[in-house]
């Protein structure tokens, strides 16, 4: 239970003015002795104002980028809009001597809507191969797999298929450098 500064002061005065020992008074009102002594030390050193609760969180987060540094990063991004967040982070570290990570620069630019879309076109895989095969030996497919055979060891299994499906070749080897096509 949280006590206000006024309630803490009343408890301190109650214990001070009581004829009973402090331990018995604190046991009856249900306040741990360590809590009371902490309050009493605060009261003796700082008066009644010291009994008010303070927020437990610090005023500043230890790894937060300062506002002036943020402004400098934004200015650099506006001066050179062609740079990626990684390049901005590297240039800022080189020029200012203050390290800012690439991810921090990216988040900062994203909050200010300064992230541009990539200038290249992403090519996606097609459903079918663009050039259909009409005869054998025009297109081959390969697969190499490293298999463990219990009791025998590790083996490479290679499969080579003609795209028309007419010919199939396979091989295996005990050593990684050997090629065995049969």
UniProtKB/TrEMBL annotation:
Cited Pfam families: HTH_32
Protein name according to UniProt: Uncharacterized protein
Looking up InterPro entries in the UniProt record yields: Homeodomain-like_sf (IPR009057), WH-like_DNA-bd_sf (IPR036388)
Gene3D superfamilies in alphabetical order: Winged helix-like DNA-binding domain superfamily/Winged helix DNA-binding domain
Q: Which organism is it from?
A: Acetobacter nitrogenifigens DSM 23921 = NBRC 105050
